[in-house]
């Protein structure tokens, strides 16, 4: 109650940052807890290492004998780091991770404890997976789920207070082989993209094209709140956001937090946090304050998408655990505080390989530019055709608070190219960019046009999907999300588009056009169909919302309830099926799981709203009301008539709040809906509206009820006291 709120403030003001050892040099700690190729080279025979390296770099299968050797070396290394347990770590269809720990220990006939870790234990695990969401993919009598080692993502040691554990990144599938996780589709989407990209590159005359992979650099925003406050806020603890709270007098109006000095306690936290990331081979690169008070960002250097996705997941776990150690609650929620900037996760994405480099880098020579234009064009086509898919993969109850609100990317998917590149594509469409062929050597003039000066200032912060010099940045992804879904969507739409490009290009070349003319003709067709998705203006403006929908034919998809049904669109089902990324059954299971999660998270919040309003806000209002009325009675007994308008307003507001609580209780009791889509719509429209209305009354009470009886830590306290 109020006493704990006020004592929290005292506890925090007298607290000291915890002691952390002086940072060790990077060379001493970098990847020290990772069984990476360097460690394998030390531990394995030449042949075993060669086989393993090939598997890591190309995904080729590993033979059983080598797996045994690798397993033994891995066990020895892990035990030398103090590990007694190992666990496959996998990535179920939630945004979390799952693990099942097993000991290395076995006993022999003499009753001695020995340790054992075979290739088959490394390769395959069998967690009791029936409690993970599977979207009807596993019927109960066939509830087996398997985890299988993903050798392309390195194993590592996780140190927790109860010991060290060898963690083995894994895929998770049903016994019939259906993907139950977020890693299998990511690996498949990479393979599909690789296949289609190779078609295009070989038509472009490229020889010995190496395996293409997608890259991901994810910027993670988060809030830190002192745990003394968090512990008196059930909403923060259970829903990750404040369901109540009046706006503070000082919010972020002055933007003085952005890139400002990082408070000492937070610096100590960050150092500890980043040291752990370095040990795990996660290349933490930048950190800074964010726009809102109490908000921060960390951005590791980009890595191969599959590894980056595992690292991102690990990073989220480590933020939370380390924050706890430092007396903070880390909030990864997209909108922990109403009226204050939310948190996103910008997913920077590109595709490339060791022979052609980054294909989204315009490069310096015309040939590179041609490849670049094709790949960039393919992305534009993909976003145009599959915008609703991109919207669906970022659709969660929590991200709905951010998307479409005035500070985050709009819920309309468009592409920002920057003035220079937009002009190149528009010129191509207009037939203005003429190739000139002289003496067999092409001079497109493109190399000049596209010699980019990568200006980090040249940003459009209002675009959900922006080209940023040598990559695309998907800015609408939610801060609490796994990056896998967005990466799968981007890789898959690109695979489809590159396939389309390859078909067109082949036809153009067959018709006798030279290479440059063929490329430009393909791109002209592409632009004729898809240029509507390119937009360089203010994505927040009302004007864009009108033009996008009415003139450009783009979709404005405000809520998850509107977005998730895209998984049922025939074109999207066909996209996933023909690229081999998700079968129709696998895709349907995702629709089922994500819509369940949406409904569940809104119901959890609604119950919390009811509970907090009834058991803490209403009682505070009643206490204050009785104080006020007894003061009025006392005054009257000495012949003074006090103004009773405040008491009346407290009474009527508390009463109105409880009326909405009653309506909300009735609403969440409803469970009969013809379809899951109807149920989602009901959550988005009815339940959310009632929750907001309870909150409006409660927040008004907060501005009237005496400070010393108000039970919940206030925005100004949570945001500014550290
Ligand atoms: P900003 O906040 O200006 O967007 P940051 O430096 O915070 O920039 O983050 C940019 C992210 O993009 C980093 O994770 C960076 O490693 C990543 N990145 C840079 N180049 C690429 C690329 N070619 N592919 C994928 N990610 C990239
Ligand atoms: Mg960015």
Gap from first CA to last CA: 21 Å
Task: Identify the CATH homologous superfamily of the largest domain.
Answer: Glutamine synthetase/guanido kinase, catalytic domain
Number of helices: 23
Q: How many individual domains? A: 3
Radius of gyration over alpha carbons? 28 Å
Protein name: Glutamine synthetase III
Domain GS catalytic: 193-617
Family: Belongs to the glutamine synthetase family.
Pfam families: Gln-synt_C, Gln-synt_C-ter, GSIII_N
Notable characteristics:
3 domains, Gln-synt_C, Creatine Kinase, Chain A, domain 2, nine-stranded antiparallel β-sheet, Glutamine synthetase III, 23 helices, Ubiquitin-like (UB roll), binds magnesium ion, 722 residues, Gln_synth/guanido_kin_cat_dom, binds adenosine-5'-diphosphate, alpha+beta, Gln_synth_cat_dom, Four Helix Bundle (Hemerythrin (Met), subunit A), globular
